[in-house]
Amino acid sequence: MTLFDVYPRLPFEPVSGRDVFIYDREGNEYLDLYGGHAVISVGHSHPHFVQAIREQAERLVFYSNAVQIPLQDELAQKLGRLSSYEGYRLFLCNSGAEAVENALKLASFHTGRKKVLAFHGAFHGRTSGAVAVTDNPGLRAPFNEGHEVVFIPLGDIEKVAEQLSGCDYAAVIIEGIQGLAGIHLPGPGFLQELASLCRGSGTALILDEVQSGYGRSGVFFAHQHAGIRPDLIAVAKGMGNGFPLGGVLIHPDIEARHGLLGTTFGGNHLAMAAGIAVLEIIERENLLVNARKVGDFLLQKLSALHPDIRDVRGHGLMLGIEFEPQTCSRVRTQLREQHRILTGTSADKRTIRLLPPLTLQRKHARRFLESLRAVLG
Questions:
Q1: Domain 14-42+286-376 -> CATH class
Q2: DSSP secondary structure, 190-244, as one string
Q3: Strand 14-18's sheet: what is its strand order?
Q4: Which of 53, 205, 224, 342 is deepest in the core (most CB within 10 A)?
């Protein structure tokens, strides 16, 4: 049996990691500014994270949601406090696509409607409902067709108002920051008006914070830069620091009775130990502030680094650097091969994504800036 191809693979094999570095089989050290698709939030093999998983694995790895799992309550309380969403409820699952899928389902149950409004450039996942609200027809099989989804330009509030005027949408779904599209921000004013239009039309507002949440933007959720409170928030990636873990934060006005949602593996003991450890590290090491400070430093320095840089976008440690397409590919390759620095691609062939662990320090940022300047010449 051979493996099904998923992504084009880089020509090296990481075998270990420590904080913001990973190491290949030959012992070469790479500065990881991509975090495995924004997943590594508190650093590779953080001692507290490793200890929490080890100790839980020695006690009990798994039992289903047919029994009491106090660790779930502990995680929910910590998440509510750190994110300022104490009054919301938490549904636990295993991935970002599952979180989006269940958020869409809850919105439809709550409103009794089917239509969803989404945005050009959006990526929400590859399961049936999540891929239907993803702006990439090439990812949708015939089986996935049939959902009532309308796509409009990001930032076009007039189009939003026009679509929601009929009050027939179950939900509007939007990323806190569009990640795969190349780091595009909806803007505080747009999000505030969007939230107001959703309230006025009885439409559920879903914030996909799978990539942009858990401190990546310098606040707990990227939408908090705009001061809004959505009805449903999808989370994953940094939630487990590499352990499969996702969830939906649910407004208390949305019904969450038995039978609406379900999961076998979601909220299992080992996942909860990982998720609690992540929140403890974020709080103890003040990683939201660190992400904001180091991100602001990078944003400032990159904006004036070299004329080949066309644009720099983002918040915190979620940054996009735009070049000409041919320059972008060359820069990313040379950073990896000549300077052992890993960066991320995007659907926009002009843009490199930076999504490092939130533990990144200024000394690491300076190393990247010096290497990038050398590559650009």
A1: alpha beta
A2: HHHHHHHHHHHHTPEEEEE-TTTTTTTTSSSSGGGGTT---SEEEE-GGGTTTS-
A3: 14-18, 21-24, 29-32, 341-342
A4: 205
d(CA 209, CA 350): 24
7, pLDDT greater than 90: no
**pTM beyond 0.90:** yes
pLDDT at 11 over 90: no
CATH of domain 48-284: 3.40.640.10
Place of tokens 């509030």: 157
Confidence of residue 295 (pLDDT cuts 50, 70, 90): very high
362, burial (CB in 10 Å: exposed 0-12, middle 13-18, buried 19+):
middle
Quick check: 217 and 316 in contact, CB under 8 A?
yes
For residue range 164-186, list pLDDT tens digits in order. Answer: 999 999 999 999 999 999 999 99
Q: Which two tokens stand for residue 181?
A: 């599209």
Task: List the chain domain ranges.
Answer: 14-42+286-376, 48-284
